[in-house]
Amino acid sequence: MLVGLPTLRPWLEDFYRHLHAHPELSHHEVATAQAVAASLRDDGYEVHEHLGGTGVIGVLRNGDGPTVLVRADMDALPVAEATGLAYASDVVVTDDDGNATPVMHACGHDVHVTCLLGAARLLAQDRDQWSGTLVTLFQPAEETGDGATGMVDNGLVGVVGSPDVAMAQHVLALPAGTVATRVGPVLAAADSLRITVYGRGAHGSMPQASVDPVVLAAMIVVRLQTVVSRETRPGDPVVVTVGSLHAGTKSNVIADRAVLELNIRTYTEESRSATLAAIKRIVDAECAASDAVAPATIERFDRFPLTENDETVTERVAAAFAEHFGARADTLAMQSASEDFSDVPNALGVPYTYWAIGGVDPARYDEARAAGRLTSDIPVNHSPHFAPVIQPTLDTGTEALVVAVLAWLGREGARAPR
Ligand code: ZN
Ligand code: ZN
After folding, report:
1. Residues of the chain with CATH 3.40.630.10
2. CA of 339 to the centre of ligand 1 (A)
């Protein structure tokens, strides 16, 4: 069944090259969304546009059965492409501050869009092989962490109802042709905090008249080091980084405030909330110890939720992958990156799984690994050199989506293409 892939392949590859050459920044995925909506309409999907800005949802109802939601992200990054590919992006846009900003699909979201459109088309062509409802969701602004919540806040639930399962995939610096799944935590939760502490400004020669925010901030930075070293169970990966610290203007002026910016990565909701609570406790206590003139303000920004794959859902997808891909189906290592995909299933209250597909020429990958040079020779996501090979990456990503969807919707005896 679904023998349409070889026929579809030239269209998929052309679509991908065009999309790669025409990337759009987060919240600006206008042309991409239009192309997505047009393709879904051609395939007979009920199309909903402009959710959370540029979000697109395509629904295909095909008889009784479960509802499966599959998501792709659409945005590119402010990166100057250096791949030298014939279809490389030379797009430069003007940002909100008037600065010229290069744009590149440096995270491979063009792969995700192309493969989901491919899977949507194959499944629309072969409706007698499955039964149920397929929901394809094309999300804006993953890179800024607010695209999924933007769709949720803009009526997502009313459009998609209550699916039985949600899924998504990401192309990573793994051998092309492979797929990789993982049960449990797979991507870190990320939180950024902007903490402002309030002292009392004074002349640098009269510390007795001040509450010095520089000393206060320094104490906070030092004490924060104990959150991981003294409060976190060894083996539980938690990162607390103070990435920026600003106070004062001049050597003989004691400032009246200091601003710290923190980045936090965790892999369980439990350690996430414990870490955030410890940070607040330390900040408040150091402010009290310094006799700060006002309570600290803690502002949260650039938040990414934990991605924690449901065991039952993931094992069902992994079994389907093992049957379809054989030795090309593998286990995914836990990733330190973060994603906002899980905001969608979490808002809907449905279980989910998130897997990886490879994008690196397998021969090149093996060569680099044999030389012990994987990290230095193979560009990762967000690199200006990140360039997934078109094949077998697009075939694999398209097949993976079809296989995973059919694990829920496939009729008895139906099989995905080999
Ligand atoms: Zn990214
Ligand atoms: Zn990405």
Report:
1. 2-188+306-409
2. 8
